[in-house]
Amino acid sequence: MSTLMNVSLSLSNLPLNGVTVVVTRPAHQAQGLRALIESRGGKVILFPVLEIQDTEDTGPVRALIERLDGFDMAIFISANAVHKALPMITARGPLPSQLRLVTVGEGTAKALQKYGRSPDLCPREQSSSEALLALPEMQQVRGKNIVIFRGEGGRELLDDTLRQRGANVVYAEVYRRARPATDPGELHDELRRGKVGVISVTSNTGLVNLLELAGPAVRNSLLATPLVVMSERNIEHARRLGFAGPIAMAKQASDAGLVEAIEDLVKTRTTA
Which one of 105, 107, 152, 214 is least enclosed by Cβ atoms within 10 Å? Predict the structure, then answer.
């Protein structure tokens, strides 16, 4: 058997062989997911629907970081929150020894580890604010001073619940989300040819931006395309927006979790 035939047979056994996956992560965060999909035989279309930008005024955050010694807990909502906050924090000096570091998911925990620290607390079964709030350590927070590092805007669930439990909570908004000027040409071509197998979207804002950036010309095809998302909230929001195809949820908020969900979705559709 020729080497070329061996390679062909090897590729055909890969779980995503022949599957085109649209990756909508911000451009600077897409390469890890792209590499995992391609290693499993898939074709990737990069279609960023979010751009992470610095806040216009970092003064309030820097002033809060100067008071970090007075906090008991720092919660990081996302990997972006870690990457924006940690350089500012460590420029001031070492992290306060009493400060417990908390991440909402595994992906955020891995981002923190790149700065030499593992989180003191992170939900393992599911990556969400609800899962974090359900942990025993988050029940008795009365009198605790807690800072939440996040992007501008977003959900108020953590703040509201922790305040109800008696904590003193402040936000440190360290980045903002913007809609990039993504060229929809390749996405349009592949949708019209019926070649898009799965679209990966990791936030509700991303779902909205996906529809806006793709435009009305391919809306019906887009709404019928299978999705892989991060949370039940994403599924609910996708349905409200009109996505009617199969939707799978990653078990872990990480690139590996997304790829596993993509493979499961493709396998289910293939054997159906």
Answer: 152
Q: Per-residue pLDDT tens for 66-87?
A: 999 999 999 999 999 999 999 9
How does residue 44 score in pLDDT terms, banded at 50, 70 and 90?
very high
What residue ranges define each of the domains in the chain, with the CATH number in brackets? 15-50+180-271 (3.40.50.10090), 53-178 (3.40.50.10090)
Element (H, E) at 151: strand 145-151
Per residue in 7-33, pLDDT tens?
444 556 899 999 999 999 999 889 999
> What is the spatial order of strands in the sheet that 196-200 belongs to?
43-46, 20-23, 196-200, 227-229, 247-249
**Burial degree of 68 (CB within 10 A; 0-12, 13-18, 19+):** middle
Contact between 243 and 223 (Cβ < 8 Å): yes
CB 169, CB 146: distance < 8 Å = yes
The b/e string for 194-226 (b: 16+ C-beta within 10 A; e otherwise) is eebbbbbbbbbbbbebbbebbeeebeebbbebb
Residue 126 has pLDDT above 80, yes or no: no
What is the reported pTM?
0.84
